[in-house]
Write a structure and sequence with these properties.
With 246 residues, this protein is of the alpha/beta class. It has helices at residues 24-31, 68-78, 97-104, 121-127, 142-154, 202-220, 232-240; strands spanning 5-11, 35-41, 54-56, 64-66, 84-94, 108-112, 130-133, 187-188, 191-192. The structure holds S-adenosylmethionine (SAM).
């Protein structure tokens, strides 16, 4: 059976992805053939003998710009019938969990990593479907940003996370933060695990967790609630269970 999700990454630093693709969920999902992630060296599409991928900026100024010819050639080779092309750039659409879910639902992504001053603008106009930003700050290259996209989206591809239940109620899955987590020991440095979690009363635990998730969202990220207002039931739950660390 073909993998459910394929990603081709085009980069001038393919070695950055070593390790990242081999461990934990991604490593296992790749070994099982659930996902197929291929990292390509942009230089393979650059003109021999020197295989130069960057050049000075027209108009002057410091720093180099990635040339359009090798990137467009790489995309044309890799795109096939279903490739969707994302360019990592701080000028792109900010990545959210909703966008991540949309990327996980695509069969085949091609991610282009920029470097230096960025990528010749004609790459965007000729072959890019969407520009993706991982946040309002500037990284030195698109590799870490591509890893963020791959890591966040892969875990939403069916079969990658062993227990799909662990995706339910996660922070940002439904526009809210998740509840606090505790593990053994029952008491640590004078702080006890909230007693409800030790009660074995599953329905009450579930209600407590929902209430804590709501308190947390109100306190830390009230902006998330602008599009997802609290219901009367949410307010009742928060009154019934105050913040555990109040
Ligand atoms: N001169 C560019 C600008 O001011 O918009 C920044 C170039 S940055 C130093 C080099 C590369 O890192 C970019 O081409 C892009 O691929 C990647 N990058 C940097 N910040 C990023 C972000 N927040 N999200 C996604 N990619 C980013």
């Amino acid at each position: 059976m073909p993998p459910a999700w394929r990603v081709d990454v085009v980069t001038t630093f393919p070695e950055s992805f070593e390790g990242f693709l081999e461990v934990s969920l991604l490593g296992k999902a790749r070994a099982a053939g659930t996902i197929d992630i291929r990292v390509h060296n942009l230089r393979d599409w650059a003109e021999p003998p020197h295989r130069v991928t960057d050049d000075y900026a027209y108009g002057g100024g410091p720093g180099m710009v990635l040339k359009p010819e090798p990137i467009v050639a790489a995309v044309e080779d890799l795109r096939g019938s279903d490739g969707w092309v994302g360019l990592l750039t701080p000028q792109g659409r900010p990545l959210t969990q909703r966008r991540v879910a949309a990327l996980a639902a695509r069969r085949h992504l091609i991610l282009i990593c920029g470097r230096y001053e960025g990528v010749d603008e004609r790459v965007r106009t000729l072959v890019v479907d969407e520009e993706i930003s991982v946040g309002d700050y500037v990284l030195s290259g698109g590799e870490v940003a591509a890893m963020v996209v791959i890591d966040a989206a892969a875990r939403l591809v069916p079969g990658v996370v062993g227990d799909a239940g662990s995706l339910v109620g996660e922070s940002h899955a439904d526009g809210r933060l998740s509840h606090p987590q505790f593990t053994r020991s029952e008491e640590f440095r004078g702080q006890r695990v909230p007693s409800v979690l030790l009660s074995g009363h599953h329905e009450r635990i579930e209600r407590w967790r929902r209430a804590q998730a709501l308190h947390r969202t109100v306190r830390r990220r009230p902006d998330l609630l602008e599009n997802c207002a609290l219901s009367d039931e949410d307010h009742q739950l928060m009154d019934e269970f105050p913040p555990w660390d109040a």
